[in-house]
Amino acid sequence: MSDFMPWLYANYIHPQLYEIHEGEYIDHFQNVIDSLPEGLLPDLQKCEEFTAIHAFLLGLRTGAGLSAAAR
Protein backbone atom coordinates (compact mmCIF):
# COMPACT_ATOMS: atom_id res chain seq x y z
CA MET A 1 0.00 0.00 0.00
CA SER A 2 1.31 3.39 -0.87
CA ASP A 3 2.11 6.07 1.68
CA PHE A 4 -0.87 8.01 0.35
CA MET A 5 -3.51 5.73 1.90
CA PRO A 6 -2.35 6.14 5.53
CA TRP A 7 -2.19 9.89 4.91
CA LEU A 8 -5.69 9.85 3.42
CA TYR A 9 -6.94 7.88 6.41
CA ALA A 10 -5.40 10.27 8.93
CA ASN A 11 -6.51 13.44 7.16
CA TYR A 12 -9.85 12.53 5.61
CA ILE A 13 -11.33 9.13 6.51
CA HIS A 14 -10.65 9.17 10.27
CA PRO A 15 -12.19 12.63 10.82
CA GLN A 16 -15.23 11.55 8.81
CA LEU A 17 -15.61 8.39 10.91
CA TYR A 18 -15.54 10.31 14.14
CA GLU A 19 -18.15 12.77 12.92
CA ILE A 20 -20.41 9.76 12.42
CA HIS A 21 -19.52 8.44 15.89
CA GLU A 22 -21.08 11.53 17.42
CA GLY A 23 -24.45 10.24 16.28
CA GLU A 24 -26.21 7.03 17.21
CA TYR A 25 -23.03 4.91 17.28
CA ILE A 26 -21.02 6.75 19.95
CA ASP A 27 -22.23 4.52 22.80
CA HIS A 28 -21.30 1.35 20.94
CA PHE A 29 -17.82 2.54 20.10
CA GLN A 30 -17.26 3.76 23.65
CA ASN A 31 -18.40 0.39 25.06
CA VAL A 32 -15.85 -1.43 22.90
CA ILE A 33 -13.06 0.96 23.86
CA ASP A 34 -13.93 0.77 27.57
CA SER A 35 -13.99 -3.04 27.56
CA LEU A 36 -10.56 -3.46 25.96
CA PRO A 37 -7.80 -4.83 28.16
CA GLU A 38 -4.93 -2.44 28.89
CA GLY A 39 -2.69 -1.91 25.88
CA LEU A 40 -5.02 -3.13 23.13
CA LEU A 41 -6.34 0.26 22.04
CA PRO A 42 -3.50 0.72 19.50
CA ASP A 43 -4.39 -2.66 17.98
CA LEU A 44 -8.03 -1.63 17.69
CA GLN A 45 -7.03 1.64 16.06
CA LYS A 46 -4.79 -0.16 13.56
CA CYS A 47 -7.61 -2.59 12.70
CA GLU A 48 -9.97 0.35 12.26
CA GLU A 49 -7.46 2.02 9.94
CA PHE A 50 -7.05 -1.14 7.84
CA THR A 51 -10.79 -1.72 7.57
CA ALA A 52 -11.60 1.90 6.72
CA ILE A 53 -8.90 2.14 4.04
CA HIS A 54 -10.03 -1.06 2.36
CA ALA A 55 -13.70 -0.08 2.56
CA PHE A 56 -12.79 3.24 0.94
CA LEU A 57 -10.86 1.47 -1.83
CA LEU A 58 -13.75 -0.95 -2.38
CA GLY A 59 -16.07 2.02 -2.75
CA LEU A 60 -13.76 3.54 -5.34
CA ARG A 61 -13.54 0.30 -7.30
CA THR A 62 -17.26 -0.34 -7.11
CA GLY A 63 -18.10 3.23 -8.05
CA ALA A 64 -15.72 3.08 -10.99
CA GLY A 65 -17.35 -0.15 -12.15
CA LEU A 66 -20.84 1.28 -11.82
CA SER A 67 -20.03 4.39 -13.82
CA ALA A 68 -18.60 2.28 -16.65
CA ALA A 69 -21.70 0.08 -16.69
CA ALA A 70 -24.01 3.10 -16.81
CA ARG A 71 -22.61 4.33 -20.12
What descriptors fit this protein?
71 residues, mainly alpha, globular, 86% helix
Please provide a written account of the structure.
There is one protein chain. This protein has 71 residues and is mainly alpha-helical. The protein has one domain (4-69). It is built from two helices and no strands. Helix 1 packs across helix 2. The N and C termini lie far apart (31 Å). The model has no long low-confidence stretch (mean pLDDT 84).
Short description, anyone?
With 71 residues, this protein is mainly α. It has helices spanning 4-35, 41-69. It contains two helices and no strands.
Binned strand content: under 5%
- Given as residue ranges, the uncertain stretches (5+ residues, pLDDT < 50) are none
Radius of gyration: 15 Å
How many independent structural domains?
Answer: 1
Strand tally is 0
Order of secondary-structure elements: HH
Mean pLDDT rating: 84
The oligomeric state is single chain
Identify the overall geometry.
globular
Structural class: mainly alpha
The level of helicity is: over 70%
The termini sit apart by: 31 Å
Major sheet size, sense and barrel closure: none
Number of helices: 2
